[in-house]
Amino acid sequence: LYIACVYPDCFGNVAALSPSLSTGLLEYETLKDSELLEALAPGLMGENFTPPKIWIDWGLNRGGGKINRFVERIATDRGREFVELLLTEFPYEQDKNLYFFEDEVGGHNEEAWAFRFYLI
Fold this sequence. Notes:
Structural class: alpha/beta
Largest sheet: 3 strands, parallel
Strand content: 15-25%
Strand order of the largest sheet: 1-2-3
Helix content: 40-55%
Mean pLDDT: 86
Low-confidence stretches: none
Distance between the termini: 15 Å
Shape: globular
Number of strands: 3
Order of helices and strands: HEHEHEH
């Protein structure tokens, strides 16, 4: 996501499978007020260019112990928050230039990403 937004003239599409949108944020902080969104915003606005098409997904399987379940829940919350921001604050429309998927049985691992890759 970061590279596509910083260099939108080079990247027209981006696939973010299980992105780490919660990195650097405390649980109570919002993505909307984060340094990450501030860095991504110019590339998402598309004022002098077409913003990149985005595919974003995450798995809902919470295996791997208590800590992993907590981390994955936060990652899911941030993913949903990011999609909502794209739809309300930026020029994104579902199934036009924004595609997202929650995998009910998938986790945060290469096997799950490989299973979902055909959807992209």
